[in-house]
Amino acid sequence: MDPRSLWAWRQFLRAHSYVIRQLETDLEAEHHLPLASFDVLVQLAEAPDGALRMNELAEAVLLSRSGLTRLVDRLERDGLVARRSCPSDARGTLATLTPEGRKRLRAASRTHLAGVSKHVTSHFSPDELDVLANLLGRLDPHVSTPPPGGGCGQGV
Questions:
Q1: What is the pTM of this model?
Q2: Is 96:88 a contact under the CB 8 Å cutoff?
Q3: Going by C-beta distance under 8 Å and a sequence separation of 6 or more, which residues neighbour residue 43?
């Protein structure tokens, strides 16, 4: 790997690590909610009927099935998520967002979005944000381009 590529890679890793740590710290301090738990609540809030099959949820939050099971167990104990049988497939289990989970997500979303602004988007002009989004979008061909104005925490 040439030095320029290695430098870009390291900058990407450092920036990612820094931002994730800051967002995690903010959510933990304000809401006692780990970033992974917040992510699960967001995925459920954005899903039809506030529910996803466990395997779909695991893919959406990039956790192993066992890791997701443990996380959903904790969220269920906290009353933020419930499990129910899949109506179209008795073998499947759905994770569903509870009213308490939606309430907690609404509160935490304000903190999260403020953190995203503080630690990421405020450092770039609108044109730079467009370039950044397009460049990063090249890294995952499965990510669709959202319309301007959408995003994390919207419609929660």
A1: 0.83
A2: no
A3: 52, 57, 60, 61
Q: Which of 97, 102, 103, 117 lies closest to 26 in space, CA to CA?
A: 117
* pLDDT, tens digit, 9 for 90 and up, residues 30-75: 999 999 999 999 999 999 889 999 989 988 887 778 889 999 999 9
Instruction: Report the Cα–Cα distance between both ends of the chain, in Å, rounded.
Output: 43
């870009």: which residue's tokens?
A: 8
Q: Is the dihedral of CA 73, 20, 48, 100 positive or negative?
A: positive
- Whether residue 35 contacts residue 23, with contact meaning beta carbons closer than 8 Å, is answered with yes
CA distance 8 to 62: 24
| Cα Dmax for the chain | 54
Residue 127: predicted pLDDT = 96
